[in-house]
Design brief:
457 residues, alpha+beta, Transferase, Pyrimidine Nucleoside Phosphorylase, Chain A, domain 3, Pyrimidine Nucleoside Phosphorylase, Chain A, domain 2, Aldehyde Oxidoreductase, domain 3, 3 domains, five-stranded mixed β-sheet, four-stranded antiparallel β-sheet, 17 helices, 14 strands, binds uracil
Amino acid sequence: MNQQKKGTNRDNNHYNPVSVIRKKRDGETLSNEEIEYLIQQYTTDAMPDYQMSAFLMAAFLNGLNDNEAAALTHSMLHSGIIVDLSHVPGIKVDKHSTGGVGDKLSLILAPIVAACGVPVPMISGRGLGHSGGTLDKLESIPGFTVDIDLNRYKEIIEKHNLVLAGQTEEIAPADKRLYALRDVTATVESIPLIAGSIMSKKLAEGIDALVLDVKFGSGAFMKTVEDAKKLAKTLVGIGEQFGKETIAYITDMNRPLGNAVGNWLEVKESIDCLNGDGPSDVMEISHLLAGTMIYLGKKADNISKGIELSRSAVSNGSAIQKWIDIVKEHGGDINFIKNPESYPKASHIVDLNSDADGVIAAMDTYLVGMASLELGAGRKSKEETVDPQAGIMLHKKTGDSVEKGETFATLYTNKKETLNNAIEMLKSAYSIGEEAIKPVRLITHKVDKNGIHDYSD
Ligand code: URA
């Protein structure tokens, strides 16, 4: 095993947190050593949350240049070990999304790709800001554990070609802490902080290649395609620098993906997808990302062939079988996968009905995410637990026509006290008019080591 050691042997005595924070606050450039010092101090509990929060806000407001961003990723990556999976046969490929609303794609494509023979070591995050997180979704399956140690991580991927885990004290511990802190300090939407977070855990998990889904729009952290391109270029650049072939797609998040928003609701929708009965937007991106992973894993000669294999894994049942096997291995109750309707329902279920005939002209997807958080599906402080049953089913999305009295969304919660807030948020997320805004392309660009390309399939 050729794992790198946690921590550094640098003598940090001549730095102090306040002076480094002040430097960034005043818009100065930090050295690699100063960034490494902050990350090392915070990861070893020598620096409290309030100082790291101040640094994050200074970095958020004043930015980090390319060199600082690279130093941040490097320090975060080396806060823990880099897993060596060279004993697992095959090219290991993972996928990561920059975050959105209703984004359950990892739950669908991970078993598809593993069923096609490509090993997928997947370290994910929890809900962040208004967006959902894969770990919270997985934990909504009773018994499912994402807190596993390195030996168990290796054991599971060897056995199933797939492992689903969270950052640990061994793997990406800096991201484990910073991610939770950024979530509650309004410091998420920053290209260098997102890049450090994503790439430190992806490079630590033992991959050979990576596929990224970089989202833009009202429900994404990057609101414009231009910012999404910048983020994608940064992420691909870091991946390639570390010798990992990296392909990113830029995809639209102006409307939620699929119809389910909220932890168990999304797991249930992803089971439908794996059973061949998923919403078309979710399936289109899932097959593209899975097909690209299968291609990078050298199980297909090109991406189109990869997509064909991905579709077959759904239609021949091997993907759902892989999902059942992996849920069982992680301790999850597979009865809920086989029979999702048996999952207990939230105590308050409220339909929202349209008060006019019309067309859903637009959706503020950020507000949909915030309404779901208000219902209990996300966190407002680090200590809060998420409610697996809370969330929203969207019966109508942009472009759909709706009649007066027709239900356009259903809310699920166990928190009666915040229900009215969530209802108001969700109502104002929908604009009902006479005509929908022009349909956007779901996938707009592909970004790889050769640059940014318009995507047309
Ligand atoms: N996903 C991550 O893992 N980190 C971020 O900062 C944003 C999305």
